[in-house]
User: Fold this.
Amino acid sequence: MRAVAPPSDRAARAAGTAPEQRWDPVRYAEHGRFVSDLAGPLIDLLAPRAEDDILDLGCGDGVLTAAVAARCRSIVGVDASPAQVAAARARGVDARVCDGHALPFESEFDAVVTNAALHWMKRPDEPIDGMWRALRPGGRVAGEMGGAGNVAQISGALADALERRGIDPKSRFPWYFPTPEAYRRRLAARGFEVRTMALVERPTNLPGDIVGWLETFAAPFLDAVAQDARPALLSEVRDALEPALYRPGAGWVADYVRLRFLAVKPAADRC
Ligand code: BEZ
Assistant:
């Protein structure tokens, strides 16, 4: 199995919108709860304060937003998925449907927290610009996203399976997984002072079968084939990944690589 070459940083800028990801809150709760469960290091980086007004960019079903709410003055969650926003609201979160490429806020927040969301935004300068505008001078962004090499084995197996069907996998690649250098450059170009930027390998135990992960997180690849052809595609990808990612006794372990950062909008806006 080869690793699929994700579009380069430059190609990501030009690519525009990826094929659509669909979110199902019930499936997400079953197969994706680890995303908020493993956010401890990000919340440590955010270090919420009682006087903070916070924006959660890509709040998903609001589990993390609700946990941070207990430690700050206010928190607003935004997410592009109406179904996830409905799930967040059902837990009492102030959540709004909003494309992260077009954040509408102006100097309203002391901090932005964003977990596992920025890699779905294929025009990365737009959320960076939106976060900048949303922050008050002196505000900070604590972010975690997939970084270079994230889920390389999984996307490689998906790419191989699509290529065997005559489908160009690059056109389906829905993620932006930058290197630390590339993302630092983008933040700095907007005026942020980057305080920390770390690429961290984090093999991640999945709560169930890899097929559950694929159905939850990889819709843009799966949607390349007709519904009745999906079971064969999933079983082919599962077979290809089993030697690398299935560990007897531990179960399925996904090859996650996180990019975690803290950046500050200077108190005196020089731009
Ligand atoms: C991530 O959080 O790194 C991730 C989630 C879904 C698909 C790909 C990556």
The two ends are 47 Å apart (CA to CA). Residues 230-245 form the longest helix (16 residues).
